[in-house]
Amino acid sequence: MRRTLLDRSPGAREPLLVVPHDASPELRAMAIHEGGWVCDGEADQEEINAALSGAARKGGRVLCAAGTYRITAPILVPSNVELQFAQGNRVTIPETHNFGQAGNRVTVWQEPFCAIVRNLHAGDGESGDEGIVLDGMHLDVGAPTGSTKLPLDVSTGGILLDGCADSRIVNCTVKDVCYDVSGSIRAYGIALTRCTDCAISGCRTDGSGYEGIGLRSGNKRCTVSGCVGENNKIHFVQAARWVGQTHYGEGIQEDLLIEDCRSLTNGIIMHGRGLSPVSRSVIANCRTKWITLDGLIDNCGVTANACRQIAVNSSEASMSGVNVSNNALIMEDGVPKASTGIFLDAYADGGVSKNILIANNTIAGGNIIMYQREGKSAVYENVTIQGNVVTYDSTGTLTPRLIDLGLYGSGTIKQVAILNNRLAGLHQLVPLDYDDTGVYILLASGSTVNIQDLLVQNNNIYARYGVRCVTDGAGTITNMLAIGNMFNLLSDVIYLTNTIKRLAILNNFIQDCTRVVRGPADDVIIHGNVLVDVRVALFNSATNIAVGINMSWKDGVGWNGAWRFKQDDSDADTMYIQKLIDGAWTTAGTFDASPPP
Length: 597
Prior knowledge:
Elements: E1 16-19, H1 25-33, E2 37-38, H2 45-56, E3 61-64, E4 67-70, E5 75-77, E6 82-85, E7 89-92, E8 105-108, E9 111-119, E10 133-135, E11 138-143, E12 155-162, E13 168-170, E14 173-177, E15 187-193, E16 199-201, E17 204-206, E18 211-216, E19 223-225, E20 235-240, E21 253-254, E22 257-259, E23 268-272, E24 278-279, E25 282-284, E26 290-295, E27 297-303, E28 306-307, E29 309-314, E30 318-325, E31 328-330, E32 341-346, E33 352-359, E34 362-364, E35 367-372, E36 379-386, E37 389-391, E38 401-407, E39 412-419, E40 422-424, E41 437-443, E42 450-457, E43 460-463, E44 465-471, E45 477-483, E46 486-489, E47 492-496, E48 500-506, E49 509-518, E50 521-527, E51 530-539, E52 543-547, E53 563-565, E54 576-579, E55 585-588
Parallel strand pairs: 1-2, 1-3, 3-6, 4-7, 5-9, 6-10, 9-12, 10-13, 11-14, 12-15, 13-16, 14-17, 15-18, 16-19, 18-20, 19-22, 20-23, 21-24, 22-25, 23-26, 24-27, 25-27, 26-29, 27-30, 28-31, 29-32, 30-33, 31-34, 32-35, 33-36, 34-37, 35-38, 36-39, 37-40, 38-41, 39-42, 40-43, 41-44, 42-45, 43-46, ...
Antiparallel strand pairs: 8-9, 53-54, 54-55
């Protein structure tokens, strides 16, 4: 429970009391009686800093009473001091004052930085400050875009802890630390940099120029929890290297936790860049507009959040060990369907995204996309898409591709497993001829990318097509297995525009489709499937086919119990088999079973 002025006994010396110029006469008299400080409304940081200096000598607390404080230079918090503000406080900068004077700046990562509130020894000397608590400050900077109140030539923050350990920023509000966000000049509400075991909790950051809360370069075991932020220009919370004019900061960020945060207008991003990757960190239980993992990310997770979009962008050399699980992706009214869902985007030339798990998410009105940029050799290895529920529940203007692999570059995509998902397109909901697809694979024109070892297993797919492969480029798909799925389709289970090498269709329940395989495939096995109303054919242009036992019941395969297996070419190893409606068997054409020469 927060201590109030009424809890204090007369003559108490701790906490040290600071009162604003607009305090009541009784409160001003109390401060004087107890050896505290009374502000005059001009450069009130002088009284606050004097109290902090006094508290530092014995590791105490400073309590700032309710009211308005006008500051013209930074508030400097020393080690082992708690600076607490009573409810109803407001810290401001006078309208006519330019806070960006040289004396108000500190050098952080070799760049000048202007912090309104900071730890005493912040800067490139690596402060070593510890045990700081900043509690309950309401910092209302009032500097909208274009304001001259803050410097336009250096980055500016509301509250900064730099090089600190075991410190906390609690229940603080920062508003309108803002100006033009172009170029490399940035504004932040609250920032930690080079900190260890520090926490930001219960804070609110609104209207900051770049982000509300920044975890910048070199932080370890730091937490952002229970915070709220709206209408920041770019991000709500960002974990990334420091961005200055010429120097970006170094040092891995690891063991970060961002949890229980909320923003309806902004998102959260972890961005590992250059010499400041992000490792072993988690975003959990947040409700934001979007969430992004970008760049050099190692063993990080996004779990149990609610948002419109989660993006995993491989924009640097490599990314490994990403877990996106148990999130709810919610389409917003008026937002195109293509922007709702989970998006993997590889565009670092030569980069590898590996050991990626997308599991147990619920996506309403969107999809899961794995994308590779044109002209890039960025590749994926060991990607698992498992246990997700993906539904597309309105007609919209876009063709729904529930899991969409769009590959435009070069290299090899290997070991992709699509397991235990429920993928529901439009055809179960509206009587329209939409080309909705459970799993859509595009090897785009001009690309040379290859796919090896694609497993589609134990999924429930309700759509027009089950798996649709469009191979306009020079690449190939090798080793595709469709095992144990339930397909309820308007058209084809596997629809190809170019040849797949080695295709196995095993132990699936296939209902209400046109063909099992439409288009060219080479080395095909179909066995152990249950076929219900396959209306035209099992295949129409596959080669080198092994057909095992595929079960059906009366009237289960084809119209009135008829089905045919027919090849469209004239090769000697092509088999023509047709089961007639009356149950007789006929063999047409020839089949050369002799061994190869």
